[in-house]
Specification:
Blueprint: H1 3-20, H2 24-45, H3 55-65, H4 70-79, H5 95-108
Length: about 110
């Protein structure tokens, strides 16, 4: 496992820990950070200039500017959704699981 994969794994472990402690908001933050790490690695390997260091900005960039499969564009979209005033997502989705699938694809391609 390389340094990028370890960094991503640490974020997902932190997400699971946050979720186990009832802190779904923190779990979502960790999932987004893991995705951001994978996106930075993917864009760097493709020789593309990073538009930002922010995971949110990188998620918006890849869903607009890269040839992601449609289901992963949807994942990137879910990871950038705003929460409601009650701090819940407006849709029923597991962002940690979705971020894992996005990271796996980015690391393989």
């Amino acid at each position: 496992m390389n340094a990028i994969e370890l960094e991503i794994q640490r974020e997902f472990e932190a997400a699971q820990h946050a979720r186990a402690n009832g802190n779904e908001g923190q779990a979502r933050v960790c999932a987004r950070r893991a995705a951001g790490i994978a996106i930075r690695d993917y864009l760097t390997r493709k020789g593309m200039r990073l538009p930002s260091r922010s995971a949110h900005d990188l998620l918006n960039f890849i869903k607009e500017e890269t040839p992601l499969p449609p289901d992963l564009k949807r994942v990137a979209n879910h990871l950038t959704l705003r929460v409601t005033e009650e701090f819940n997502l407006p849709i029923d989705v597991d962002l940690v699981a979705e971020a894992k699938s996005l990271c796996e694809w980015l690391l393989k391609n």
